[in-house]
Design a protein that fits this description.
mainly alpha; ABC transporter involved in vitamin B12 uptake, BtuC
Length: 271
């Protein structure tokens, strides 16, 4: 049977396919801001912070996704707060809090009776974990993200390129800044079942980094990033199906191949 035939037979495959497409759109939107603002490490830190939240959720017996989302948002906001105070650099705070989050996660897991293997699946991704409810949640997040970028397009563009200029033009940079951080954090938590905590940063960085090589405008960069991300997800899912490899890893490899091809093409064109 082919991939698309199996999609209509196996519910988990259908859920994983649609979830990967929605994750691609969601992360690609915020990827543009992440790359232009050069806040890649905040995304990476928030991803690792969600591990502590997942473990705490398993320990206390409530929704691990909810606790992971709270942990990721708290991490991103804490990093931003300390970096704005200028007493400790952003990178230093990430270096302090990232291993702390992982350490707390390991400690929480040590108290869980009958160690759950689901945590390993969250680290590296597992399409078997993706449910119809996850797809619906992703769809809601995508709609909210699209509305946010549509309603505050001008403000986001100014903020992405120059925060001081944005303030000069009357943009509420605080609102945009924290909205973006929350969006990044929720995007990460929503993506871990597909990509895993270890690899999810690639979804937040590679699409926009690749799109930046081609696009001349912010809108063009967003469009290219979404297209590249969806294309990589599609190719990754197909490869995972036929080669029997983890889909999250396959998608990340596809994203890198896209970057390599476009980088080589644009470099030769300039030469």
């Amino acid at each position: 049977m082919s991939f698309f035939q199996d999609m209509f037979v196996f519910e988990f495959l259908k859920n994983a396919f649609f979830a990967s497409i929605l994750v691609s759109i969601l992360t690609a939107l915020f990827s543009t801001v992440v790359v232009l603002r050069k806040i890649e490490f905040i995304g990476d830190g928030a991803a690792h912070a969600s591990f502590g939240g997942l473990a705490l959720g398993f320990l206390i017996g409530i929704s691990s996704t909810l606790v992971a989302a709270i942990s990721a948002v708290a991490f991103a906001i804490t990093i931003s707060y300390f970096s704005q105070k200028r007493r400790v650099s952003e990178n230093s705070m990430i270096g302090i809090l990232l291993p702390l989050s992982m350490a707390l996660g390991v400690i929480f897991l040590s108290f869980v009776k009958g160690y759950t293997p689901d945590v390993m699946s969250y680290l590296f991704g597992n399409i078997l974990l993706v449910s119809k409810a996850d797809v619906v949640l992703l769809l809601i997040l995508v709609v909210i993200a699209v509305l946010f970028f549509s309603l505050f397009h001008r403000e986001i563009v100014y903020y992405s390129f120059d925060e001081k200029m944005a303030k000069h033009f009357g943009v509420n940079t605080g609102f945009i800044h924290y909205s973006v951080l929350i969006g990044i954090s929720l995007s990460i938590v929503a993506s871990v079942k597909i990509a895993g905590i270890i690899l999810v940063t690639a979804f937040l960085v590679t699409p926009a980094a690749t799109a930046k090589l081609m696009a001349k405008t912010f809108k063009g960069m967003v469009t290219f990033a979404i297209g590249l991300s969806i294309g990589a997800s599609f190719c990754g899912m197909i490869l995972a199906y036929y080669l029997n490899i983890p889909p999250g890893s396959a998608i990340v490899v596809a994203l890198f191949v896209e970057f390599l091809v476009i980088y080589s093409f644009t470099k030769s064109k300039k030469a």
